[in-house]
Amino acid sequence: MPKTNTKPWDPAEHFASEADMAAYLEAAFEEGDPALIAAAIGDVAWAKGMSQMVILPQVSGGLK
């Protein structure tokens, strides 16, 4: 049997819009698996670029 060449599947390559990303995250949250949710958040972060995903906590006095 001939060897099959494959490449890793990158979901970030298949997001055509913000709505696609939101639907992807919603599906992950519906499953309720923390590992899947974390992976989905990472996929969306990768697609958007990490600089757009940084969320600083609203802590009185700022970060320490």
Fold and architecture overview:
The protein is an all-alpha fold. The chain has a domain at 14-48. The protein is built from two helices and no strands. The protein has helices spanning 18-31, 34-48. The radius of gyration is 16 Å and the shape is extended. The termini are far apart. The model has no long low-confidence stretch (mean pLDDT 82).
Task: Offer a few descriptive terms.
64 residues, mainly alpha
Order of helices and strands: HH
Distance between the termini: 59 Å
- Unreliable segments of 5+ consecutive residues: none
Major sheet size, sense and barrel closure: none
* Portion of residues within helices: 40-55%
The Cα radius of gyration reads: 16 Å
- How large a portion of the residues is in β-strands, by DSSP E? under 5%
What do the pLDDT scores average to?
A: 82
Number of helices, counting only DSSP H or I runs of 4 residues or more:
2
Strand elements, count: 0
- Class inferred from helices and paired strands: mainly alpha
Shape: extended
